[in-house]
Amino acid sequence: MYSPTTRLLAVLELLQSNRHISGAEMARRLEVDVRTIRRYITNLQDMGIPIEGERGPDGGYQLRRGHRLPPLLYTEEEAVALALGLIALQTFHFPVDAVAVQGALAKTERVIPQAVFQRIQSLRRAIVFNPSAYMMQPPKLIHNQFVVQLSSAVHEQHCIQLTYCSWQGTLTERIVDPYALVYNEGYWYLVGYCHLRDDLRTFRLDRIHEVLPTTDRFEKIREINPLEHVLKSIALTPNVYNVEIILYTTLETAQSVFSLADGILEEVSDTVILRRNTSDLEWLAYTLLYAPFRVRVKQPPELRQKLVDLSAKALEMSREPDISADE
User: Fold this and answer.
1) Phi and psi dihedrals of 198, rounded to 5?
2) Domain boundaries, given as residue ranges, for the chain
3) DSSP at 75
4) Which of 63, 122, 241, 321 could form a disulfide with 155 if both were Cys (CB 3.0 to 4.6 A apart)?
């Protein structure tokens, strides 16, 4: 929930960044009604801010011509949002000058209050990004505050209470020791020790309904690679098809072809078994065609049929064109 002061600052920022803006547009951007905007404008005018209003279809608000306000200070939430965005830019190697990103982040941290600085440091230490992941779907909507709450709990090693919805739609209350946050292919994940399951678990943040802090502290049962743990969990999450494939090669060679995002690899005698659960057999069939060694699909039979269909398609494409048929 935004405070009235934060809303007033947001209205003032809109007036400074727009020569002329309607009340309806400000209401849309701030997600309030027009009447509330009028009240904010009146409050700012009472504080001595020279805001001029015009009625009519083309009416709106503007700061008196020639009037300049000093730069606004960032609110706490704005500073955290800015820092998180800069960290993501830096990690994912966006087409922005790396020195400029680092400089902007350093300047932001230098001028913000100590409490906000600590929140940003918690974010930097707690969050693990996977910059090599290909964005297969748009990012899922989550409560932004969850990322801040959970990263602070990770940093301070405080247990948390979650209301979590499983993939089957079942709601459960969990006490969790949070180890790390991972961003992978459009999803945020929390890795932690679940007291209900008495084991390490992976939680998708878009399935978390509520996060409640506790005063209890925890010690990690063991050190883990958070990204590796998440990728393994994704591969083994129950899905439409349970896949098991025999790879006639060494584990080292198999690992050079298939990543953890493709499935779990297990060395068995002179072969390697690839296991994963998925709903997308076509993607998997295409992936198998790139393997530079012999492959046999143990299950499901639907994947074998996909490969047969792809083979028939490739055979058809490879045939010499019948020129006489085109004449």
Assistant:
1) 55, 45
2) 4-63, 76-127, 144-224, 238-317
3) P
4) 122
Let me know: does 303 contact 297? Beta carbons within 8 Å.
Answer: yes
Are the beta carbons of 224 and 166 closer than 8 angstroms? no
Contact between 235 and 263 under an 8 Å Cβ cutoff? The reply is yes
* CATH hierarchy code of domain 238-317: 3.30.70
CATH topology of domain 4-63: Arc Repressor Mutant, subunit A (1.10.10)
0.70 surpassed by pTM: no
Task: Please name the helix (run of DSSP H) or strand (run of DSSP E) that holds residue 182, with its range, or none.
Answer: strand 171-184
CATH 1.20.1600.10 at 144-224, yes or no:
no
> Closest Cα partner for 150 from 186, 115, 175, 126?
126
Structure tokens given for 18: 């727009």
Q: Which of 146, 147, 149, 195 is nearest to 172 (CA)?
A: 195
Instruction: Encode pLDDT of 253-301 as tens digits.
Output: 999 999 888 899 999 999 999 999 998 899 899 999 999 999 999 999 9
